[in-house]
Design brief:
Blueprint: E1 20-26, E2 28-29, E3 41-42, H1 49-63, E4 72-79, H2 87-100, E5 103-113, H3 120-129, E6 133-139, H4 143-148, H5 155-168, E7 172-178, H6 185-197, E8 202-207, H7 215-218, H8 226-242, E9 246-249, E10 252-254, H9 261-267, E11 271-275, E12 280-285, E13 288-294, H10 298-303, E14 308-313, H11 319-327, E15 334-335, H12 336-343, H13 351-359, E16 363-365, E17 369-372, H14 374-378, H15 380-385
Parallel strand pairs: 1-4, 1-11, 2-3, 4-5, 5-6, 6-7, 7-8
Antiparallel strand pairs: 8-10, 9-10, 12-13, 13-14, 15-17, 16-17
Helix pairs in contact: 1-2, 2-3, 3-5, 6-8
The structure holds iron/sulfur cluster (SF4).
Protein backbone atom coordinates (compact mmCIF):
# COMPACT_ATOMS: atom_id res chain seq x y z
CA UNK A 1 0.00 0.00 0.00
CA UNK A 2 1.48 3.34 -1.08
CA UNK A 3 1.38 6.10 1.50
CA UNK A 4 -0.49 9.05 -0.01
CA UNK A 5 1.52 11.88 1.50
CA UNK A 6 2.55 14.82 -0.63
CA UNK A 7 6.16 15.65 -1.26
CA UNK A 8 7.10 18.78 0.65
CA UNK A 9 6.73 21.33 -2.16
CA UNK A 10 9.58 23.64 -3.03
CA UNK A 11 9.29 27.18 -4.35
CA UNK A 12 6.63 28.19 -6.88
CA UNK A 13 8.04 28.91 -10.35
CA UNK A 14 5.52 29.76 -13.05
CA UNK A 15 6.91 29.77 -16.58
CA UNK A 16 3.84 31.62 -17.91
CA UNK A 17 0.84 33.30 -16.33
CA UNK A 18 -2.59 31.66 -16.80
CA UNK A 19 -5.62 33.26 -18.50
CA UNK A 20 -7.18 36.10 -16.51
CA UNK A 21 -10.95 36.43 -15.95
CA UNK A 22 -13.07 38.95 -14.04
CA UNK A 23 -15.84 38.07 -11.60
CA UNK A 24 -18.28 40.84 -10.65
CA UNK A 25 -20.65 40.24 -7.72
CA UNK A 26 -24.01 42.00 -7.46
CA UNK A 27 -25.41 41.01 -4.07
CA UNK A 28 -29.14 41.79 -4.16
CA UNK A 29 -32.18 39.59 -4.83
CA UNK A 30 -35.93 40.14 -4.76
CA UNK A 31 -36.18 37.68 -1.87
CA UNK A 32 -33.74 35.35 -0.16
CA UNK A 33 -34.36 31.71 -1.20
CA UNK A 34 -34.45 29.36 1.82
CA UNK A 35 -31.69 27.07 0.44
CA UNK A 36 -29.28 29.82 -0.63
CA UNK A 37 -25.92 30.30 1.08
CA UNK A 38 -24.55 32.76 -1.49
CA UNK A 39 -23.77 36.33 -0.53
CA UNK A 40 -27.23 37.57 -1.51
CA UNK A 41 -29.39 40.07 0.33
CA UNK A 42 -33.07 40.89 0.00
CA UNK A 43 -33.39 44.30 -1.61
CA UNK A 44 -35.39 46.96 0.15
CA UNK A 45 -36.36 49.83 -2.13
CA UNK A 46 -34.33 51.15 -5.04
CA UNK A 47 -30.84 49.74 -5.51
CA UNK A 48 -27.84 52.10 -5.32
CA UNK A 49 -26.79 51.08 -8.84
CA UNK A 50 -24.68 54.10 -9.75
CA UNK A 51 -22.84 54.15 -6.45
CA UNK A 52 -22.25 50.39 -6.61
CA UNK A 53 -20.89 50.48 -10.19
CA UNK A 54 -18.50 53.24 -9.07
CA UNK A 55 -17.33 51.05 -6.21
CA UNK A 56 -16.85 48.05 -8.53
CA UNK A 57 -14.61 50.12 -10.76
CA UNK A 58 -12.61 51.32 -7.74
CA UNK A 59 -12.07 47.66 -6.78
CA UNK A 60 -10.87 46.93 -10.29
CA UNK A 61 -8.55 49.93 -10.32
CA UNK A 62 -6.91 48.83 -7.08
CA UNK A 63 -6.05 45.47 -8.69
CA UNK A 64 -4.54 46.90 -11.88
CA UNK A 65 -0.93 47.12 -10.62
CA UNK A 66 -1.02 43.32 -10.09
CA UNK A 67 -2.09 42.55 -13.66
CA UNK A 68 -0.35 45.12 -15.87
CA UNK A 69 -0.09 44.02 -19.47
CA UNK A 70 -2.64 41.22 -19.15
CA UNK A 71 -5.99 40.91 -20.95
CA UNK A 72 -9.32 39.59 -19.71
CA UNK A 73 -10.49 36.37 -21.34
CA UNK A 74 -13.98 36.47 -19.77
CA UNK A 75 -16.24 38.48 -17.48
CA UNK A 76 -18.97 36.93 -15.30
CA UNK A 77 -21.54 39.17 -13.64
CA UNK A 78 -23.06 36.97 -10.93
CA UNK A 79 -24.97 37.32 -7.73
CA UNK A 80 -27.41 37.70 -6.24
CA UNK A 81 -29.56 38.72 -9.17
CA UNK A 82 -27.57 40.98 -11.54
CA UNK A 83 -30.60 41.29 -13.83
CA UNK A 84 -32.09 43.61 -11.18
CA UNK A 85 -29.58 46.20 -12.44
CA UNK A 86 -30.66 48.27 -15.43
CA UNK A 87 -29.00 47.77 -18.84
CA UNK A 88 -27.63 51.34 -18.42
CA UNK A 89 -25.81 50.35 -15.23
CA UNK A 90 -24.41 47.18 -16.86
CA UNK A 91 -23.30 49.34 -19.81
CA UNK A 92 -21.54 51.77 -17.43
CA UNK A 93 -19.88 48.82 -15.69
CA UNK A 94 -18.64 47.15 -18.88
CA UNK A 95 -17.48 50.44 -20.43
CA UNK A 96 -15.59 51.15 -17.20
CA UNK A 97 -14.00 47.69 -17.25
CA UNK A 98 -12.92 48.08 -20.90
CA UNK A 99 -11.42 51.50 -20.19
CA UNK A 100 -9.22 50.00 -17.48
CA UNK A 101 -8.30 46.54 -18.72
CA UNK A 102 -8.34 45.26 -22.31
CA UNK A 103 -10.60 42.34 -23.17
CA UNK A 104 -9.49 39.57 -25.55
CA UNK A 105 -11.38 39.82 -28.86
CA UNK A 106 -14.56 37.73 -28.51
CA UNK A 107 -14.24 37.54 -24.71
CA UNK A 108 -17.20 35.75 -23.10
CA UNK A 109 -19.33 38.12 -21.01
CA UNK A 110 -22.01 36.38 -18.94
CA UNK A 111 -24.79 37.91 -16.88
CA UNK A 112 -26.99 35.94 -14.46
CA UNK A 113 -30.72 36.62 -14.72
CA UNK A 114 -33.68 35.37 -12.73
CA UNK A 115 -37.17 34.90 -14.17
CA UNK A 116 -39.54 37.57 -12.96
CA UNK A 117 -36.82 40.27 -13.13
CA UNK A 118 -36.35 40.39 -16.91
CA UNK A 119 -38.40 40.89 -20.04
CA UNK A 120 -37.42 40.93 -23.70
CA UNK A 121 -36.44 44.62 -23.81
CA UNK A 122 -34.15 44.26 -20.82
CA UNK A 123 -32.35 41.30 -22.42
CA UNK A 124 -31.80 43.36 -25.58
CA UNK A 125 -30.44 46.17 -23.41
CA UNK A 126 -27.94 43.81 -21.76
CA UNK A 127 -26.88 42.58 -25.21
CA UNK A 128 -26.36 46.16 -26.41
CA UNK A 129 -24.24 46.78 -23.29
CA UNK A 130 -21.86 44.00 -24.46
CA UNK A 131 -23.16 40.95 -22.59
CA UNK A 132 -22.96 37.89 -24.91
CA UNK A 133 -24.05 35.04 -22.64
CA UNK A 134 -27.01 34.76 -20.26
CA UNK A 135 -27.44 32.31 -17.41
CA UNK A 136 -31.05 31.94 -16.32
CA UNK A 137 -31.81 30.65 -12.80
CA UNK A 138 -34.87 28.53 -13.58
CA UNK A 139 -34.32 25.68 -11.05
CA UNK A 140 -37.56 23.87 -12.07
CA UNK A 141 -40.42 24.09 -14.56
CA UNK A 142 -42.89 22.77 -11.99
CA UNK A 143 -44.93 25.23 -9.91
CA UNK A 144 -45.08 22.95 -6.85
CA UNK A 145 -41.28 22.50 -6.91
CA UNK A 146 -40.72 26.24 -7.33
CA UNK A 147 -42.98 26.88 -4.35
CA UNK A 148 -41.11 24.30 -2.26
CA UNK A 149 -37.87 26.12 -3.16
CA UNK A 150 -39.33 29.50 -2.17
CA UNK A 151 -38.66 30.92 -5.65
CA UNK A 152 -40.38 34.19 -6.56
CA UNK A 153 -41.31 33.09 -10.11
CA UNK A 154 -43.76 30.63 -11.67
CA UNK A 155 -43.06 27.90 -14.24
CA UNK A 156 -44.73 30.07 -16.89
CA UNK A 157 -42.47 33.03 -16.07
CA UNK A 158 -39.45 30.71 -16.24
CA UNK A 159 -40.45 29.57 -19.75
CA UNK A 160 -41.00 33.14 -20.87
CA UNK A 161 -37.64 34.25 -19.47
CA UNK A 162 -35.79 31.45 -21.31
CA UNK A 163 -37.61 32.24 -24.57
CA UNK A 164 -36.81 35.97 -24.24
CA UNK A 165 -33.17 35.20 -23.45
CA UNK A 166 -32.94 32.97 -26.54
CA UNK A 167 -34.52 35.68 -28.69
CA UNK A 168 -31.64 38.04 -27.80
CA UNK A 169 -28.69 35.65 -27.24
CA UNK A 170 -27.28 32.49 -28.90
CA UNK A 171 -25.38 31.55 -25.79
CA UNK A 172 -27.80 30.79 -22.95
CA UNK A 173 -27.41 28.59 -19.88
CA UNK A 174 -30.24 27.36 -17.79
CA UNK A 175 -29.73 26.34 -14.13
CA UNK A 176 -31.86 23.46 -12.87
CA UNK A 177 -31.94 21.71 -9.50
CA UNK A 178 -32.84 18.13 -8.61
CA UNK A 179 -33.30 16.20 -5.39
CA UNK A 180 -36.02 18.68 -4.43
CA UNK A 181 -38.55 18.24 -1.59
CA UNK A 182 -41.25 15.82 -2.78
CA UNK A 183 -39.62 15.37 -6.22
CA UNK A 184 -40.04 11.99 -7.97
CA UNK A 185 -37.78 10.61 -10.69
CA UNK A 186 -40.57 11.38 -13.21
CA UNK A 187 -40.74 15.03 -12.10
CA UNK A 188 -36.95 15.39 -12.32
CA UNK A 189 -37.13 13.84 -15.80
CA UNK A 190 -39.87 16.29 -16.84
CA UNK A 191 -37.66 19.21 -15.76
CA UNK A 192 -34.59 18.07 -17.66
CA UNK A 193 -36.71 17.28 -20.74
CA UNK A 194 -38.20 20.79 -20.61
CA UNK A 195 -34.72 22.26 -20.21
CA UNK A 196 -33.33 20.42 -23.22
CA UNK A 197 -36.48 21.14 -25.30
CA UNK A 198 -36.19 24.88 -24.58
CA UNK A 199 -33.37 25.10 -27.13
CA UNK A 200 -30.59 26.35 -24.82
CA UNK A 201 -27.09 25.10 -25.71
CA UNK A 202 -25.95 24.81 -22.05
CA UNK A 203 -27.56 23.30 -18.97
CA UNK A 204 -26.40 23.13 -15.37
CA UNK A 205 -28.01 20.62 -13.01
CA UNK A 206 -27.28 20.96 -9.29
CA UNK A 207 -28.41 18.66 -6.52
CA UNK A 208 -30.16 20.54 -3.71
CA UNK A 209 -28.05 20.33 -0.57
CA UNK A 210 -28.85 21.81 2.82
CA UNK A 211 -26.16 24.32 3.75
CA UNK A 212 -25.48 25.94 7.13
CA UNK A 213 -26.80 29.49 7.62
CA UNK A 214 -29.86 28.95 5.44
CA UNK A 215 -33.57 28.82 6.33
CA UNK A 216 -33.65 25.16 5.20
CA UNK A 217 -30.85 24.38 7.67
CA UNK A 218 -32.92 25.58 10.62
CA UNK A 219 -36.09 23.93 9.30
CA UNK A 220 -35.04 21.16 6.91
CA UNK A 221 -37.55 19.95 4.34
CA UNK A 222 -37.95 16.25 3.55
CA UNK A 223 -35.57 15.51 0.68
CA UNK A 224 -35.56 12.40 -1.55
CA UNK A 225 -33.55 9.42 -0.24
CA UNK A 226 -29.89 9.30 -1.25
CA UNK A 227 -30.49 6.45 -3.76
CA UNK A 228 -33.30 8.33 -5.48
CA UNK A 229 -31.15 11.47 -5.82
CA UNK A 230 -28.34 9.32 -7.26
CA UNK A 231 -30.85 7.83 -9.75
CA UNK A 232 -31.90 11.37 -10.75
CA UNK A 233 -28.28 12.31 -11.37
CA UNK A 234 -27.70 9.19 -13.50
CA UNK A 235 -30.93 9.82 -15.43
CA UNK A 236 -29.93 13.45 -16.12
CA UNK A 237 -26.48 12.42 -17.37
CA UNK A 238 -27.88 9.66 -19.63
CA UNK A 239 -30.69 11.81 -20.99
CA UNK A 240 -28.44 14.76 -21.82
CA UNK A 241 -25.87 12.45 -23.39
CA UNK A 242 -28.63 11.17 -25.73
CA UNK A 243 -29.44 14.79 -26.58
CA UNK A 244 -25.80 15.53 -27.54
CA UNK A 245 -24.98 17.62 -24.50
CA UNK A 246 -21.40 16.91 -23.39
CA UNK A 247 -20.96 16.39 -19.65
CA UNK A 248 -17.83 18.49 -19.17
CA UNK A 249 -17.95 19.30 -15.46
CA UNK A 250 -19.67 17.71 -12.42
CA UNK A 251 -22.84 19.78 -12.94
CA UNK A 252 -22.39 21.31 -16.42
CA UNK A 253 -23.54 20.05 -19.84
CA UNK A 254 -22.96 21.81 -23.16
CA UNK A 255 -23.57 21.37 -26.83
CA UNK A 256 -20.33 21.50 -28.87
CA UNK A 257 -18.79 24.97 -28.80
CA UNK A 258 -20.83 26.18 -25.82
CA UNK A 259 -18.78 25.24 -22.76
CA UNK A 260 -18.63 28.13 -20.30
CA UNK A 261 -15.14 29.55 -20.77
CA UNK A 262 -15.30 31.55 -17.55
CA UNK A 263 -16.09 28.53 -15.38
CA UNK A 264 -13.58 26.36 -17.25
CA UNK A 265 -10.94 28.90 -16.29
CA UNK A 266 -11.76 28.29 -12.58
CA UNK A 267 -11.65 24.53 -13.02
CA UNK A 268 -8.36 24.72 -14.90
CA UNK A 269 -6.94 26.85 -12.07
CA UNK A 270 -6.72 30.06 -14.08
CA UNK A 271 -6.61 33.55 -12.56
CA UNK A 272 -9.59 35.80 -11.85
CA UNK A 273 -10.10 39.18 -10.29
CA UNK A 274 -12.96 39.46 -7.80
CA UNK A 275 -14.82 42.77 -7.52
CA UNK A 276 -18.00 43.57 -5.60
CA UNK A 277 -19.34 42.64 -2.16
CA UNK A 278 -18.01 39.27 -0.99
CA UNK A 279 -16.13 38.58 -4.25
CA UNK A 280 -13.00 36.42 -4.25
CA UNK A 281 -10.07 36.41 -6.66
CA UNK A 282 -6.82 34.64 -7.48
CA UNK A 283 -3.77 36.22 -9.12
CA UNK A 284 -0.57 34.43 -10.16
CA UNK A 285 2.88 35.97 -10.30
CA UNK A 286 6.06 34.27 -11.55
CA UNK A 287 7.02 33.26 -7.98
CA UNK A 288 3.71 33.08 -6.06
CA UNK A 289 -0.05 32.69 -6.23
CA UNK A 290 -2.26 35.03 -4.23
CA UNK A 291 -5.92 35.17 -3.22
CA UNK A 292 -8.07 38.14 -2.26
CA UNK A 293 -11.57 38.56 -0.85
CA UNK A 294 -13.88 41.46 -0.07
CA UNK A 295 -16.41 42.63 2.51
CA UNK A 296 -19.68 40.76 2.23
CA UNK A 297 -22.29 43.15 3.61
CA UNK A 298 -23.39 45.54 0.83
CA UNK A 299 -23.79 48.49 3.22
CA UNK A 300 -20.36 48.00 4.78
CA UNK A 301 -18.86 47.41 1.32
CA UNK A 302 -20.35 50.63 -0.06
CA UNK A 303 -19.11 52.68 2.90
CA UNK A 304 -15.56 51.28 2.97
CA UNK A 305 -12.52 53.06 1.54
CA UNK A 306 -10.75 49.75 0.99
CA UNK A 307 -13.10 46.79 0.47
CA UNK A 308 -10.47 44.02 0.82
CA UNK A 309 -10.81 41.77 3.85
CA UNK A 310 -8.02 39.41 2.93
CA UNK A 311 -5.05 39.28 0.60
CA UNK A 312 -2.66 36.38 1.03
CA UNK A 313 -0.05 34.29 -0.69
CA UNK A 314 -1.24 30.69 -1.00
CA UNK A 315 1.31 28.42 0.64
CA UNK A 316 2.91 25.97 -1.83
CA UNK A 317 1.72 23.13 0.46
CA UNK A 318 -1.92 24.08 -0.23
CA UNK A 319 -1.60 24.41 -4.00
CA UNK A 320 -1.91 20.70 -4.96
CA UNK A 321 -5.24 20.40 -3.10
CA UNK A 322 -6.52 23.71 -4.48
CA UNK A 323 -5.63 22.65 -8.01
CA UNK A 324 -7.26 19.22 -7.62
CA UNK A 325 -10.38 20.65 -5.97
CA UNK A 326 -11.05 22.34 -9.30
CA UNK A 327 -9.48 20.10 -11.94
CA UNK A 328 -10.99 16.84 -10.67
CA UNK A 329 -14.46 18.25 -11.39
CA UNK A 330 -13.68 17.74 -15.08
CA UNK A 331 -14.79 14.22 -16.11
CA UNK A 332 -12.44 14.31 -19.12
CA UNK A 333 -9.62 15.40 -16.82
CA UNK A 334 -6.67 17.68 -17.43
CA UNK A 335 -3.37 17.47 -19.23
CA UNK A 336 -0.46 16.20 -17.18
CA UNK A 337 1.43 19.43 -17.92
CA UNK A 338 -1.34 21.67 -16.55
CA UNK A 339 -0.50 20.94 -12.90
CA UNK A 340 3.01 22.35 -13.26
CA UNK A 341 1.88 25.14 -15.57
CA UNK A 342 -0.74 26.44 -13.10
CA UNK A 343 0.75 25.69 -9.67
CA UNK A 344 4.43 26.29 -10.54
CA UNK A 345 5.28 22.99 -8.80
CA UNK A 346 6.65 19.85 -10.49
CA UNK A 347 4.23 16.95 -11.05
CA UNK A 348 6.50 14.84 -8.82
CA UNK A 349 5.04 16.82 -5.86
CA UNK A 350 1.86 14.75 -6.20
CA UNK A 351 3.39 11.49 -7.43
CA UNK A 352 2.39 9.57 -4.29
CA UNK A 353 -1.26 10.64 -4.00
CA UNK A 354 -1.69 10.14 -7.75
CA UNK A 355 -0.41 6.60 -7.43
CA UNK A 356 -2.65 5.96 -4.41
CA UNK A 357 -5.67 7.33 -6.31
CA UNK A 358 -4.84 5.10 -9.26
CA UNK A 359 -4.53 2.02 -7.02
CA UNK A 360 -7.95 2.78 -5.51
CA UNK A 361 -9.48 3.04 -8.99
CA UNK A 362 -10.32 6.73 -8.49
CA UNK A 363 -8.26 8.11 -11.38
CA UNK A 364 -6.82 6.90 -14.66
CA UNK A 365 -3.87 8.49 -16.43
CA UNK A 366 -1.52 8.15 -19.31
CA UNK A 367 1.41 10.31 -20.31
CA UNK A 368 -0.91 13.07 -21.53
CA UNK A 369 -4.09 13.12 -19.45
CA UNK A 370 -5.17 12.54 -15.84
CA UNK A 371 -8.90 12.06 -15.27
CA UNK A 372 -11.23 10.84 -12.52
CA UNK A 373 -12.87 7.45 -13.16
CA UNK A 374 -16.67 7.17 -12.71
CA UNK A 375 -15.87 5.85 -9.20
CA UNK A 376 -13.59 8.86 -8.60
CA UNK A 377 -16.39 11.19 -9.70
CA UNK A 378 -18.82 9.48 -7.32
CA UNK A 379 -16.37 9.50 -4.39
CA UNK A 380 -14.82 12.87 -5.17
CA UNK A 381 -14.27 13.78 -1.50
CA UNK A 382 -12.34 10.57 -0.86
CA UNK A 383 -10.24 11.30 -3.93
CA UNK A 384 -9.59 14.91 -2.92
CA UNK A 385 -8.53 13.93 0.60
CA UNK A 386 -5.46 12.27 -0.89
CA UNK A 387 -4.18 15.70 -1.95
CA UNK A 388 -4.65 17.48 1.41
CA UNK A 389 -1.47 19.02 2.85
CA UNK A 390 0.14 16.74 5.47
S1 LIG B 1 -32.17 34.10 -6.46
FE1 LIG B 1 -30.25 32.91 -6.40
S2 LIG B 1 -28.76 34.22 -5.34
FE2 LIG B 1 -30.81 35.07 -4.95
S3 LIG B 1 -31.41 34.19 -2.99
FE3 LIG B 1 -32.25 32.86 -4.59
S4 LIG B 1 -30.68 31.29 -4.93
FE4 LIG B 1 -29.72 32.95 -3.77
Amino acid sequence: MIQATLERPGAVKLAALPPLALYVHIPWCVRKCPYCDFNSHERSGALPEKEYVGKLLEDLESLLPSVWGRRLTSVFIGGGTPSLFSPESIDALLSGVRARLPLEPGAEITLEANPGTVEAGRFRGFRDAGVNRISVGVQSFDDAMLKALGRVHSAEEAKRAVASALAAFDNVNLDLMYGLPGQSLALARADIEAGAASGVPHLSAYQLTIEPNTAFYSKPPQLPEHDLSADMQGMIEDFLDEKQFQHYETSAFARPGHRCRHNLNYWEFGDYLGIGAGAHGKISFPDRITRHSRMKQPREYLAARDTLTEEKVVSPAELPFEFMLNALRLPYGFSAGLFQERTGLPLSTIARPLQAAEEKGLIERDLKVIHPTPKGQRFLNELLELFLPA
